Amino acid sequence: MSFSLVIPCYNEAKNITILIDKYKKFLKNKNNELVFVNNGSTDNTDNIFKKLKKKHKNIKVCRIKKNIGFGYGLKKGLRMSKKKHVLYSHADLEVDPKDIMKCINIFVKKKNQSCKRIFIKGNRVNKIKNHWSLNDLFFTYGQTIFSSILFRKKLYDIHGQPVFFPRFLLKEIKYFPNDFSIDLAIYHHAVKNNYKIIRFPVNFNKKGRLYGIGNSSNLSKKIKGTFEQFYNSFKILFKSF
Question: What is the rounded average pLDDT for all residues in the chain?
Fold first, then answer.
């Protein structure tokens, strides 16, 4: 059994070497592939990836010249991946790489069941202990309420990572947003189409990032991102009919 793991990176050069060390177990299986997306980085990311590709034969790199958004980079990386089972996550180390193996182990335990339409997604817990601010909590729970009302489905912790699904899901989705709303598009599709949804607890540590600045690191970015996601939520809804 093999898996594709897609990780978009934007100016994460200093985090990548640490990340690789934490993904040793995943890379040890030579049938697995790790697809890094250089999502328009302006730092030393390209040079880091060139060295990694020489050292690890099961690492691929998708290079995007201009950063259009997380969703755009993820979409390109997913299309480059080849394995039957797909996962994606972030590169910033706020997501614990160990959760990738937890996700795979959950799938392995469930694979003997007759259901092939399995969707697994992290559910971020212990938010206060993991240094979430009041703004973080407000915007996260606000989106949960808004999305659940709009789609008339229980959709919570929209941006929980990692995410796992069978490759054929990619061919079913009609619309891939270019921003972080891609999480909602994929999650909503799985719920609407009666995938077996499995959520498992993960710790998303806001102080886990060692280097770089997050895309939603200040209030103005959070507000801008929220309005973009509200707009894309309606597009996801209309295009899913």
Answer: 91
